[in-house]
Write a structure and sequence with these properties.
Length: 228
């Protein structure tokens, strides 16, 4: 489903979709796994989520991707999410610290990825709800067009030291893991995402050409764009 409108209204729509999906999932199975990305495109949604009534104590939060830098580094995706809404929810005792799952980077990348995979497996084998924001060339998480990341056969997470975007060292949920999600919300915000949106709608292009197309494999998916 493609939903068009002004950005502020779409941010409200995204927050409402995520909140209702989390609540329904928790009602059904007792808990929910929410996967979130980094990037400035999602900050407004994070702040709106912090104001929503959600059974946060039953929500586990994982990252769809991470820049392999220390957790307190300004480029760390989790730090952005923490500063935007997680810190507030913890302070208000709505969200349990043990339900927050940042990637802990120790420079032993293979082991770090393995640890993160095991952490997810201890909770679930898939994400219930995943929030994604498309990049200018159609990447999502850190899966880039015609790159080793999107071509990977890994079941859970992939890493690369050759990202087309800086920093070069990144980890990402794999194509297989994202496609197993139950619900997805994908954003195309800003004029800079026009080509990505056109690629997404081009039937001649594959997932490898435009990784954002992964959401088409997810049964319940919403595409939000302020492009007219």
């Amino acid at each position: 489903m493609i939903i068009k409108g002004k950005r502020k209204e779409l941010e409200k729509k995204a927050a409402s979709l995520i909140a209702s999906s989390l609540t329904k999932t928790i009602r059904k199975k007792g808990f929910a796994v929410l996967a979130i990305p980094g990037g400035r495109s999602v900050v407004g949604i994070f702040r709106l989520l912090a104001k929503k009534w959600i059974p946060w104590q039953n929500v586990h939060i994982f990252m769809t991707d991470e820049r392999l830098v220390p957790i307190n580094n300004k480029n760390n995706n989790y730090k952005l999410a923490y500063d935007s809404f997680i810190k507030k929810l913890i302070k208000e005792r709505k969200l349990l610290k043990e339900n927050i799952h940042p990637l802990i980077f120790t420079r032993k990348i293979k082991k770090d990825i393995e640890n993160y995979e095991n952490e997810l497996k201890s909770v679930s084998s898939y994400f219930d709800i995943v929030l994604l924001s498309a990049g200018e060339e159609g990447h999502v998480a850190s899966l880039f067009p015609n790159h080793e990341t999107i071509k990977s056969k890994k079941e859970f997470f992939v890493s690369t030291n050759n990202s087309p975007k800086l920093p070069k060292n990144r980890m990402s949920a794999s194509k297989k893991l994202l496609s197993k999600s139950k619900i997805s919300v994908l954003l195309f915000f800003g004029e800079g995402k026009r080509q990505a949106f056109e690629n997404f709608n081009n039937p001649r292009l594959s997932i490898y050409d435009c990784p954002a197309k992964i959401v088409n494999q997810i049964r319940e998916h919403y595409i939000l764009t302020d492009l007219t």
